Amino acid sequence: MVKFENITFRTADGKAYHLEIDRINPNILTAGSPGRILKMVEYLKDAEIIEGDRKMTVVHGKYQGLPVSAFATGMGPASTAVVLPEALEVAEGPITMLRLGTSGSLQPFVKVGHMVISSGVVRDEMATRAAVGPEYPAVADPALVPIMAAAAEKHGYRLGEKLWVGIIHAKDDLYFVETPQFSPSTELMTAKLASYRRMGVLASEMEFSVYCIMRDFYEGRRDDRVMVGNLLAVIASAPEVEAITVSKEDKKRMEHDMIKIGLDTLLLVNRLREGKSVDIDIDQVVRGMMLVPPRGKLLRS
Question: In this structure, is residue 90 part of a structural domain?
């Protein structure tokens, strides 16, 4: 059997260089914001907080008996591409890693307050091209998508109403890409984003392409599976829709919902992996995904 070497840096005492950890549970939630990671503490028992010199916050704890960890990736694909490999190299056993993030809508029917589960990603960023060319697809784990949808529906997000599954867009710049009218290359950037919207891309964020590419890279270096998923709270309207400001109360509710959906998904995945029964009907969820109206109808309604 071929033995693969780790690619990340380690400290003198053997810890991951940037996350500053030497252990992490394989059931993992992530977010760009350290603040969102700290909010997860109230949902966990026996929570332990680790904040190193770089403030890449890590939390360990248990959710209904399941060992869970969470860590902050920082903003953008470059930061994510630094810390994600560290976690993937430190974790032992089958890994389930879910990103809980925010996004701007690219479709008028995907509204502020809705949730989006990613099935795949447009790799409109440069960080992952250091690993593989732009023609290589970035896809979420298919098995995770209906499980995440089931967990979201349990918390009141209905498929085709406030919950959407589909392709999202990942970028490495926030302002000039998401609001191309301000870019010095406005004609180029506007046309590019418009083409993604016409093809049905649901929302735009900044990190999940890294998860998909790193998953594929590390599954060739590990004996255990790595599964990645992405749940996005929509906090900005589509370009042609009147801008809506997210209130503090709505943002707090959405963060709570995301964390609960993420934790419940980890629990469901672990029970299914162990062959235990779960309180969801996957067939019903898949039927619900199939019955979401086609985009053309949604755009005309």
Answer: no
Range of the domain at 215: 98-300
**How many whole angstroms separate alpha carbon 182 and alpha carbon 180?**
5
Residue 120 corresponds to which tokens in the numbers above? 């795949």
Angle between helices 208-218 and 76-90 (to 10 degrees): 30
Instruction: Determine how β-strand 95-105 pairs with β-strand 27-31.
Output: parallel
Task: Give residue-wise pLDDT tens across range 114-141.
Answer: 999 999 999 999 999 999 999 999 999 9
Q: Which residues contact residue 155 at a Cβ distance below 8 angstroms, ignoring those fewer than 6 apart? A: 257, 260, 261, 264
Residue showing tokens 């083409």: 195
* Rounded Cα–Cα distance for residues 210 and 80 (Å): 7
How many CA atoms, within 13 angstroms, populate the side-chain half-sphere of residue 157? 29
Report how far residue 101's alpha carbon sits from residue 94's, in angstroms, rounded to the nearest whole number. Answer: 23
Q: How many residues does the chain have?
A: 301
Contact 232, 98 (CB under 8 A): no
Q: For residue 184, what is the domain's CATH number?
A: 3.40.50.1580
CA 132 to chain centre: 20
Q: How many domains does one find in the chain?
A: 1
Strands 138-139 and 163-171: unpaired
Across the strands, what pairs with 116? 164, 232
Q: Is 192 a member of any domain?
A: yes
Chain mean position to CA 219? 18
In a domain, 247, yes or no: yes
Per-residue model confidence as pLDDT tens digits over 74-88: 999 999 999 999 999
